[in-house]
Amino acid sequence: MNLPANPKLKSAPALLSWLLGACIIFLQVGFTYYWSFQTLAVLLVLLVVLQSRPAFVNLGFVLLIMVVFTAFLGLTAFTVPIAISENSANLFNTFVGVVGYAFMIACLPNLAFRSPEVVLRFFRFVATLTILMIVALICITDLEVFPFLTRETLILQNTTLITNYTTLDVLDEDFKYLHDNGLQSTLVLFYGEQSFLAAVLFSSVVSRLVCDKLLVKKGWVEPVPQRVHKASGLSAFVKRHAQAIVAVLGLGAMIYIKSFSSFFYVVIICASLMMSPRRRIAAVRLKPGTLLLALLGLVLLGSIAVSASEYYTHRFTTVSDSVSFDQRFASALDFGLQEYILGIGDVAKMPKVGFQNGILYIVAISGVGGLGLMALLFYRIHVLARPLGLSIVAMACVFGTFSQNGGILSPNKVVILSLVLLPLACGNHIRRRRRESREAQLALAGSGV
Fold first, then answer.
1. Structure-model confidence comparison of residues 445 and 265, the more confident one
2. Which of 24, 254, 271, 278 would you label with 91, given CA atoms 20 to 30 Å apart?
């Protein structure tokens, strides 16, 4: 049974939506690690969560996992402190920060909001805004509208990013190599890495899909309002097909930035949408406007894919020689049973460049505690996303965010994960209402007997 939409319900302030969208664009920018946009973004997310008056579900499991995680993290801090952080000047502060961020991530899919439709509307707007701003920045950057917004100038500002340790000498060598070989500089915007930009786009697209599915499924919004159905003109056409347009722009941007991981993100999203019973191509009634949009979308994505095909072909044919692939996943083969149970106990087991995969980092610093944290997280994602038909794409999104680099227990990754996990958590409210309804019916039936 659908819940009636409440027209008097106040949505989260629009200013917060715009602020969070801007903070996501500049997540890696700041004066210091904490005096930065990532910290402001975390505070904005917390403000929205608190305004929605959440309750916890599965709190006992979360606390149990966190106790085990903290205990094994303490063991690693005592035996191999460098595994927790190679650059920290204060191990205690780092220890507290790691536990705090792990607790935040564990809580995200275990919140039950009293006003879930407000949270869904908020994150749907933020996700859409993020995609549109990134697409606009990509266009402005490659058209070189402003001399300070080009691929080269954006790469040079990597030296000032709060979590990037690239030097100007290294960048000069990279530019020389690209120039000598007639290659184009990479497109990283303000993120420092293509994979980071791809993870933000992927999370935003998935966030929009989750929000739309839940809002429509529970009757909080109409799929397309009747007044928009009847209206004509470009504005009405865009409103009728807003979700499809945003998805095409997001997918096109992911292909265009030429990140190896973005190829898999696009395939996963497309496969998930095509496998959904309600979205099978044969079952879709194509009106003239819808058919036109579909053709334009296919032409746009196809042209971008063709222009980027040489890059992706090269990456696939040289994957065995890929340094980034080796850095992210090779450590999994180096770990023995002891590492997966107790965490890393020998500094010799650490990769030379540090952990470049968040999942392996969590396992390395906490062993079975880290595995428990990951198991709880992915189980909750599966339970909440399965009724929406988005289980695979949601788990892939979180897996991709964790695997993007080793700095998963950080403010910027909490923000990126919240784009998907907090909308999914709105399903807890629905499950709780359904359970309370069943209990009430059983109680009524029992009293009648």
1. 265
2. 24
